[in-house]
Amino acid sequence: MNIHEYQAKALLKRYGVVVPRGGVAFSPAEAEKVANELGGPIWVVKSQIHAGGRGAGRFQNNPEGKGGVRVVKSVADVAANAGEMLGQVLVTKQTGPAGKEVKRLYIEEGCDIKRELYLGLLLDRATSRVTIMASTEGGMEIEEVAHNNPEKILKVAVDPATGISGFHARKIAFGLGLEGKQVNAAVKFVMAAYKAFVELDASTVEINPLVVTGAGEIIALDAKMNFDDNALFRHKDVEELRDADEEEASEREAAKHELNYIKLDGNIGCMVNGAGLAMATMDIIKLHGGEPANFLDVGGGATKERVTTAFKLILSDKNVEGILVNIFGGIMRCDVIAEGVVAAAREVSLHVPLVVRLEGTNVDMGKRILAESGLPILSADDLGDAAKKIVSAVQRKAA
Protein backbone atom coordinates (compact mmCIF):
# COMPACT_ATOMS: atom_id res chain seq x y z
CA MET A 1 0.00 0.00 0.00
CA ASN A 2 1.25 3.47 -0.90
CA ILE A 3 0.54 6.73 0.91
CA HIS A 4 1.05 10.40 0.12
CA GLU A 5 4.14 12.41 0.97
CA TYR A 6 2.48 14.42 3.73
CA GLN A 7 1.18 11.22 5.33
CA ALA A 8 4.63 9.61 5.21
CA LYS A 9 6.17 12.68 6.84
CA ALA A 10 3.60 12.63 9.61
CA LEU A 11 4.37 8.98 10.37
CA LEU A 12 8.13 9.49 10.25
CA LYS A 13 7.89 12.55 12.47
CA ARG A 14 6.27 10.39 15.17
CA TYR A 15 9.50 8.38 15.29
CA GLY A 16 11.79 11.39 15.49
CA VAL A 17 12.60 11.97 11.82
CA VAL A 18 13.02 15.71 11.20
CA VAL A 19 10.65 17.09 8.54
CA PRO A 20 9.71 20.65 7.49
CA ARG A 21 6.46 22.12 8.82
CA GLY A 22 3.53 21.89 6.45
CA GLY A 23 -0.18 21.24 6.00
CA VAL A 24 -2.50 19.54 3.52
CA ALA A 25 -4.98 21.55 1.44
CA PHE A 26 -7.90 20.50 -0.75
CA SER A 27 -8.76 23.98 -2.07
CA PRO A 28 -7.00 27.30 -2.79
CA ALA A 29 -8.62 28.78 0.32
CA GLU A 30 -7.22 25.98 2.50
CA ALA A 31 -3.82 26.41 0.87
CA GLU A 32 -3.87 30.12 1.70
CA LYS A 33 -4.85 29.36 5.30
CA VAL A 34 -1.99 26.88 5.72
CA ALA A 35 0.48 29.37 4.22
CA ASN A 36 -0.60 32.06 6.67
CA GLU A 37 -0.19 29.66 9.57
CA LEU A 38 3.30 28.66 8.45
CA GLY A 39 4.51 32.20 7.86
CA GLY A 40 7.04 33.14 5.21
CA PRO A 41 8.95 34.24 3.41
CA ILE A 42 9.03 31.15 1.15
CA TRP A 43 6.54 28.34 0.67
CA VAL A 44 6.51 25.19 -1.48
CA VAL A 45 3.26 24.03 -3.12
CA LYS A 46 3.41 20.28 -3.73
CA SER A 47 1.00 18.11 -5.71
CA GLN A 48 0.08 14.96 -3.81
CA ILE A 49 -0.20 11.92 -6.06
CA HIS A 50 1.18 8.40 -5.76
CA ALA A 51 4.02 8.93 -8.22
CA GLY A 52 7.52 10.32 -8.25
CA GLY A 53 8.98 12.99 -10.51
CA ARG A 54 6.29 15.52 -9.61
CA GLY A 55 8.58 18.52 -9.88
CA ALA A 56 9.68 17.59 -13.39
CA GLY A 57 6.17 16.54 -14.41
CA ARG A 58 3.80 18.66 -16.47
CA PHE A 59 0.05 19.22 -16.40
CA GLN A 60 -1.99 18.01 -19.37
CA ASN A 61 -3.80 21.32 -19.69
CA ASN A 62 -0.48 23.21 -19.84
CA PRO A 63 2.37 20.89 -20.93
CA GLU A 64 4.77 23.81 -21.40
CA GLY A 65 4.04 25.31 -17.99
CA LYS A 66 5.29 24.70 -14.48
CA GLY A 67 5.52 21.29 -12.80
CA GLY A 68 3.77 19.78 -9.83
CA VAL A 69 6.13 21.22 -7.17
CA ARG A 70 6.47 25.00 -7.05
CA VAL A 71 8.42 27.43 -4.85
CA VAL A 72 6.57 30.71 -4.23
CA LYS A 73 7.24 33.88 -2.27
CA SER A 74 3.81 35.18 -1.26
CA VAL A 75 0.58 33.86 0.22
CA ALA A 76 -1.26 35.15 -2.83
CA ASP A 77 0.99 33.05 -5.07
CA VAL A 78 0.32 29.99 -2.89
CA ALA A 79 -3.41 30.37 -3.50
CA ALA A 80 -2.94 31.15 -7.21
CA ASN A 81 -0.74 28.11 -7.82
CA ALA A 82 -3.09 25.91 -5.81
CA GLY A 83 -5.90 27.00 -8.12
CA GLU A 84 -3.81 26.10 -11.16
CA MET A 85 -2.90 22.63 -9.86
CA LEU A 86 -5.97 21.26 -8.10
CA GLY A 87 -8.27 19.28 -10.36
CA GLN A 88 -5.67 19.05 -13.14
CA VAL A 89 -3.96 15.92 -14.44
CA LEU A 90 -0.24 15.72 -13.70
CA VAL A 91 1.92 13.56 -15.97
CA THR A 92 5.29 12.30 -14.69
CA LYS A 93 7.71 9.55 -15.64
CA GLN A 94 5.98 7.23 -13.19
CA THR A 95 2.34 7.96 -14.06
CA GLY A 96 2.60 7.21 -17.77
CA PRO A 97 0.83 9.38 -20.36
CA ALA A 98 -2.54 9.04 -18.61
CA GLY A 99 -1.26 10.96 -15.59
CA LYS A 100 -3.04 11.39 -12.26
CA GLU A 101 -5.52 14.02 -11.15
CA VAL A 102 -4.27 16.27 -8.34
CA LYS A 103 -6.93 16.31 -5.62
CA ARG A 104 -4.83 17.51 -2.70
CA LEU A 105 -1.76 19.64 -2.09
CA TYR A 106 0.88 19.87 0.59
CA ILE A 107 1.90 23.40 1.54
CA GLU A 108 5.32 23.38 3.17
CA GLU A 109 7.70 25.94 4.58
CA GLY A 110 10.77 26.80 2.53
CA CYS A 111 14.13 25.26 3.36
CA ASP A 112 17.70 26.60 3.22
CA ILE A 113 19.29 23.78 1.21
CA LYS A 114 23.05 23.38 1.34
CA ARG A 115 23.35 19.76 0.14
CA GLU A 116 20.94 17.20 -1.30
CA LEU A 117 21.47 13.55 -0.36
CA TYR A 118 19.55 10.27 -0.74
CA LEU A 119 18.45 7.80 1.92
CA GLY A 120 16.36 4.68 1.43
CA LEU A 121 15.45 1.59 3.45
CA LEU A 122 14.15 -1.63 1.95
CA LEU A 123 14.10 -5.36 2.51
CA ASP A 124 16.81 -7.11 0.49
CA ARG A 125 15.28 -10.52 -0.19
CA ALA A 126 18.61 -11.90 -1.36
CA THR A 127 20.18 -11.41 2.07
CA SER A 128 17.02 -11.33 4.26
CA ARG A 129 18.31 -8.07 5.71
CA VAL A 130 16.93 -4.57 5.97
CA THR A 131 19.28 -2.62 3.75
CA ILE A 132 19.97 1.07 4.18
CA MET A 133 20.97 2.77 0.94
CA ALA A 134 22.52 6.22 0.82
CA SER A 135 24.04 8.43 -1.84
CA THR A 136 25.49 11.89 -2.22
CA GLU A 137 23.43 12.21 -5.41
CA GLY A 138 20.21 13.38 -3.78
CA GLY A 139 17.36 14.70 -5.90
CA MET A 140 18.01 12.16 -8.64
CA GLU A 141 16.19 8.88 -9.16
CA ILE A 142 18.22 6.16 -7.48
CA GLU A 143 17.88 3.97 -10.60
CA GLU A 144 19.74 6.60 -12.61
CA VAL A 145 22.47 6.82 -10.00
CA ALA A 146 22.80 3.03 -9.94
CA HIS A 147 23.13 2.98 -13.73
CA ASN A 148 25.45 5.95 -14.21
CA ASN A 149 27.39 6.13 -10.93
CA PRO A 150 26.98 2.86 -8.99
CA GLU A 151 30.06 3.65 -6.91
CA LYS A 152 28.13 6.54 -5.33
CA ILE A 153 25.60 4.23 -3.67
CA LEU A 154 26.47 3.09 -0.15
CA LYS A 155 24.66 0.03 1.23
CA VAL A 156 24.55 -1.09 4.85
CA ALA A 157 22.74 -4.33 5.76
CA VAL A 158 21.17 -4.71 9.20
CA ASP A 159 20.70 -8.17 10.71
CA PRO A 160 17.10 -8.35 12.00
CA ALA A 161 18.25 -10.53 14.90
CA THR A 162 20.38 -7.74 16.37
CA GLY A 163 18.70 -4.68 14.90
CA ILE A 164 20.32 -1.38 14.06
CA SER A 165 23.28 -0.03 16.06
CA GLY A 166 25.07 3.27 16.14
CA PHE A 167 27.87 2.04 13.91
CA HIS A 168 25.42 1.31 11.08
CA ALA A 169 24.19 4.88 11.17
CA ARG A 170 27.69 6.35 11.56
CA LYS A 171 28.85 4.39 8.52
CA ILE A 172 26.07 6.06 6.53
CA ALA A 173 26.89 9.51 7.92
CA PHE A 174 30.61 9.27 7.18
CA GLY A 175 29.90 7.75 3.75
CA LEU A 176 27.83 10.82 2.89
CA GLY A 177 30.70 13.10 3.82
CA LEU A 178 28.97 14.60 6.84
CA GLU A 179 31.04 16.14 9.60
CA GLY A 180 30.80 17.77 13.01
CA LYS A 181 27.31 18.02 14.47
CA GLN A 182 25.88 16.80 11.17
CA VAL A 183 27.09 13.28 12.03
CA ASN A 184 25.14 13.09 15.28
CA ALA A 185 22.07 14.54 13.57
CA ALA A 186 22.36 11.96 10.78
CA VAL A 187 22.78 9.09 13.25
CA LYS A 188 19.56 10.07 15.06
CA PHE A 189 17.82 10.48 11.70
CA VAL A 190 18.84 7.06 10.36
CA MET A 191 18.01 5.29 13.63
CA ALA A 192 14.57 6.91 13.69
CA ALA A 193 13.87 6.03 10.07
CA TYR A 194 14.88 2.40 10.70
CA LYS A 195 12.60 2.17 13.74
CA ALA A 196 9.68 3.51 11.70
CA PHE A 197 10.43 1.04 8.91
CA VAL A 198 10.44 -1.99 11.21
CA GLU A 199 7.62 -1.07 13.59
CA LEU A 200 5.22 0.00 10.83
CA ASP A 201 5.97 -3.06 8.65
CA ALA A 202 7.03 -0.84 5.77
CA SER A 203 8.36 -2.34 2.56
CA THR A 204 10.08 0.88 1.50
CA VAL A 205 11.08 4.16 3.08
CA GLU A 206 12.66 6.60 0.63
CA ILE A 207 13.82 10.10 1.48
CA ASN A 208 14.90 11.93 -1.63
CA PRO A 209 16.22 14.45 -1.13
CA LEU A 210 17.56 14.23 2.37
CA VAL A 211 18.96 17.73 2.82
CA VAL A 212 21.64 19.37 4.90
CA THR A 213 20.56 22.93 5.68
CA GLY A 214 22.77 25.97 5.98
CA ALA A 215 22.50 25.59 9.75
CA GLY A 216 23.70 21.97 9.54
CA GLU A 217 20.33 20.33 10.19
CA ILE A 218 19.42 17.02 8.54
CA ILE A 219 15.85 17.15 7.16
CA ALA A 220 13.61 14.91 5.06
CA LEU A 221 12.58 17.28 2.28
CA ASP A 222 10.56 14.54 0.58
CA ALA A 223 9.37 11.17 1.82
CA LYS A 224 7.84 8.06 0.31
CA MET A 225 6.58 5.03 2.20
CA ASN A 226 5.13 1.72 1.01
CA PHE A 227 3.68 -0.93 3.31
CA ASP A 228 3.33 -4.70 3.30
CA ASP A 229 -0.38 -5.33 2.67
CA ASN A 230 -0.15 -8.60 4.60
CA ALA A 231 0.73 -6.70 7.79
CA LEU A 232 -1.90 -3.97 7.61
CA PHE A 233 -4.14 -5.84 10.03
CA ARG A 234 -1.61 -4.81 12.69
CA HIS A 235 -1.73 -1.14 11.68
CA LYS A 236 -5.30 0.06 11.31
CA ASP A 237 -4.12 3.68 11.58
CA VAL A 238 -1.87 3.16 8.56
CA GLU A 239 -4.57 1.32 6.61
CA GLU A 240 -6.88 4.31 7.13
CA LEU A 241 -4.39 6.44 5.14
CA ARG A 242 -5.21 4.51 1.96
CA ASP A 243 -6.33 6.83 -0.86
CA ALA A 244 -8.62 4.71 -3.03
CA ASP A 245 -8.67 7.40 -5.75
CA GLU A 246 -4.97 6.75 -6.36
CA GLU A 247 -5.44 3.03 -6.93
CA GLU A 248 -6.52 1.16 -10.02
CA ALA A 249 -10.26 0.41 -9.74
CA SER A 250 -9.77 -3.19 -10.87
CA GLU A 251 -7.04 -3.73 -8.27
CA ARG A 252 -9.35 -2.41 -5.52
CA GLU A 253 -12.08 -4.80 -6.67
CA ALA A 254 -9.62 -7.70 -6.73
CA ALA A 255 -8.54 -6.99 -3.16
CA LYS A 256 -12.17 -7.29 -1.99
CA HIS A 257 -12.18 -10.89 -3.26
CA GLU A 258 -8.69 -11.77 -1.98
CA LEU A 259 -7.26 -11.85 -5.49
CA ASN A 260 -3.70 -10.76 -6.24
CA TYR A 261 -4.16 -8.60 -9.33
CA ILE A 262 -1.92 -6.01 -10.97
CA LYS A 263 -2.92 -4.34 -14.20
CA LEU A 264 -0.26 -4.17 -16.93
CA ASP A 265 -0.10 -2.64 -20.41
CA GLY A 266 -0.43 -5.72 -22.63
CA ASN A 267 -3.37 -7.38 -24.38
CA ILE A 268 -3.29 -11.01 -23.14
CA GLY A 269 -5.10 -11.55 -19.86
CA CYS A 270 -3.66 -14.14 -17.47
CA MET A 271 -5.36 -16.15 -14.74
CA VAL A 272 -2.97 -18.39 -12.82
CA ASN A 273 -2.76 -20.02 -9.39
CA GLY A 274 0.51 -19.25 -7.63
CA ALA A 275 2.70 -16.15 -7.88
CA GLY A 276 5.72 -18.00 -9.28
CA LEU A 277 3.65 -19.75 -11.94
CA ALA A 278 2.01 -16.43 -12.79
CA MET A 279 5.42 -14.82 -13.35
CA ALA A 280 6.53 -17.76 -15.49
CA THR A 281 3.30 -17.52 -17.52
CA MET A 282 3.90 -13.84 -18.24
CA ASP A 283 7.49 -14.57 -19.21
CA ILE A 284 6.57 -17.30 -21.68
CA ILE A 285 3.87 -15.12 -23.24
CA LYS A 286 6.54 -12.50 -23.93
CA LEU A 287 8.92 -15.20 -25.17
CA HIS A 288 6.40 -16.08 -27.88
CA GLY A 289 5.85 -12.46 -28.90
CA GLY A 290 2.85 -11.50 -26.76
CA GLU A 291 2.33 -8.94 -24.01
CA PRO A 292 0.61 -9.84 -20.70
CA ALA A 293 -2.24 -7.54 -19.67
CA ASN A 294 -2.08 -8.39 -15.98
CA PHE A 295 -0.64 -10.39 -13.14
CA LEU A 296 -3.44 -12.40 -11.54
CA ASP A 297 -2.93 -15.07 -8.88
CA VAL A 298 -6.22 -16.63 -7.80
CA GLY A 299 -4.51 -18.43 -4.92
CA GLY A 300 -4.30 -22.07 -3.95
CA GLY A 301 -7.80 -22.50 -2.58
CA ALA A 302 -9.98 -20.31 -4.78
CA THR A 303 -13.69 -21.01 -5.03
CA LYS A 304 -15.83 -21.09 -8.16
CA GLU A 305 -17.13 -17.62 -7.26
CA ARG A 306 -13.63 -16.20 -6.87
CA VAL A 307 -12.58 -17.65 -10.23
CA THR A 308 -15.66 -16.10 -11.84
CA THR A 309 -14.77 -12.72 -10.32
CA ALA A 310 -11.19 -13.06 -11.55
CA PHE A 311 -12.40 -13.77 -15.07
CA LYS A 312 -14.64 -10.69 -15.00
CA LEU A 313 -11.74 -8.56 -13.77
CA ILE A 314 -9.61 -9.62 -16.71
CA LEU A 315 -12.38 -8.85 -19.20
CA SER A 316 -13.05 -5.45 -17.60
CA ASP A 317 -9.75 -4.34 -19.16
CA LYS A 318 -10.64 -3.00 -22.61
CA ASN A 319 -7.11 -3.77 -23.83
CA VAL A 320 -7.55 -7.53 -23.36
CA GLU A 321 -7.78 -9.33 -26.72
CA GLY A 322 -7.24 -12.86 -25.43
CA ILE A 323 -7.06 -14.84 -22.19
CA LEU A 324 -4.74 -17.57 -21.00
CA VAL A 325 -5.80 -19.63 -17.98
CA ASN A 326 -2.92 -21.67 -16.57
CA ILE A 327 -3.76 -23.82 -13.55
CA PHE A 328 -1.72 -26.45 -11.78
CA GLY A 329 -4.17 -28.16 -9.45
CA GLY A 330 -2.78 -29.12 -6.07
CA ILE A 331 -5.01 -27.69 -3.39
CA MET A 332 -6.86 -25.96 -6.22
CA ARG A 333 -8.96 -28.49 -8.16
CA CYS A 334 -9.08 -28.27 -11.94
CA ASP A 335 -12.83 -28.96 -12.05
CA VAL A 336 -13.48 -25.91 -9.82
CA ILE A 337 -11.42 -23.73 -12.15
CA ALA A 338 -13.25 -25.13 -15.17
CA GLU A 339 -16.66 -24.46 -13.63
CA GLY A 340 -15.66 -20.89 -12.80
CA VAL A 341 -14.30 -20.25 -16.28
CA VAL A 342 -17.43 -21.61 -17.95
CA ALA A 343 -19.76 -19.66 -15.64
CA ALA A 344 -17.88 -16.42 -16.19
CA ALA A 345 -17.59 -16.88 -19.96
CA ARG A 346 -21.35 -17.37 -20.23
CA GLU A 347 -22.16 -14.48 -17.93
CA VAL A 348 -20.00 -11.93 -19.77
CA SER A 349 -20.63 -13.28 -23.29
CA LEU A 350 -17.03 -14.18 -24.06
CA HIS A 351 -15.84 -12.37 -27.18
CA VAL A 352 -12.07 -12.94 -27.12
CA PRO A 353 -9.98 -16.09 -27.68
CA LEU A 354 -9.57 -18.23 -24.56
CA VAL A 355 -6.85 -20.85 -24.04
CA VAL A 356 -6.92 -23.05 -20.95
CA ARG A 357 -4.13 -25.26 -19.69
CA LEU A 358 -5.06 -27.50 -16.76
CA GLU A 359 -2.88 -29.99 -14.92
CA GLY A 360 -3.16 -31.74 -11.57
CA THR A 361 -6.06 -32.68 -9.30
CA ASN A 362 -9.23 -33.65 -11.21
CA VAL A 363 -7.67 -32.56 -14.50
CA ASP A 364 -9.73 -34.99 -16.62
CA MET A 365 -12.94 -33.78 -14.99
CA GLY A 366 -11.92 -30.17 -15.62
CA LYS A 367 -11.15 -30.80 -19.28
CA ARG A 368 -14.47 -32.59 -19.70
CA ILE A 369 -16.36 -29.62 -18.22
CA LEU A 370 -14.64 -27.30 -20.70
CA ALA A 371 -15.22 -29.61 -23.66
CA GLU A 372 -18.91 -30.07 -22.87
CA SER A 373 -19.54 -26.36 -22.26
CA GLY A 374 -20.16 -25.61 -25.93
CA LEU A 375 -17.89 -22.55 -25.65
CA PRO A 376 -15.03 -21.85 -28.09
CA ILE A 377 -12.29 -22.75 -25.59
CA LEU A 378 -8.89 -23.93 -26.81
CA SER A 379 -7.19 -26.57 -24.66
CA ALA A 380 -3.42 -26.75 -24.30
CA ASP A 381 -1.18 -29.66 -23.35
CA ASP A 382 1.50 -27.64 -21.57
CA LEU A 383 2.49 -24.04 -20.82
CA GLY A 384 4.54 -23.59 -23.98
CA ASP A 385 1.70 -24.89 -26.11
CA ALA A 386 -0.76 -22.60 -24.29
CA ALA A 387 1.38 -19.49 -24.83
CA LYS A 388 1.83 -20.25 -28.53
CA LYS A 389 -1.90 -20.79 -29.01
CA ILE A 390 -3.05 -17.59 -27.26
CA VAL A 391 -0.43 -15.39 -28.94
CA SER A 392 -1.32 -16.86 -32.34
CA ALA A 393 -5.07 -16.46 -31.69
CA VAL A 394 -4.68 -12.81 -30.68
CA GLN A 395 -2.49 -12.08 -33.71
CA ARG A 396 -5.02 -13.70 -36.06
CA LYS A 397 -7.83 -11.69 -34.53
CA ALA A 398 -5.85 -8.45 -34.94
CA ALA A 399 -5.13 -9.25 -38.57
From TrEMBL:
Binds 1 Mg(2+) ion per subunit. It catalyses: (S)-malate + ATP + CoA = (S)-malyl-CoA + ADP + phosphate; GTP + succinate + CoA = succinyl-CoA + GDP + phosphate; succinate + ATP + CoA = succinyl-CoA + ADP + phosphate. Its EC number is 6.2.1.5. This is Succinate--CoA ligase [ADP-forming] subunit beta. It comes from Skermanella aerolata. The keyword ATP-binding applies. Mg(2+) binds at residues 208, 222. It is an enzyme of class 6 (ligase). Its cofactor is Mg(2+). Heterotetramer of two alpha and two beta subunits. The gene is sucC_2. Keywords: ATP-binding, Ligase, Magnesium, Metal-binding, Nucleotide-binding, Tricarboxylic acid cycle.
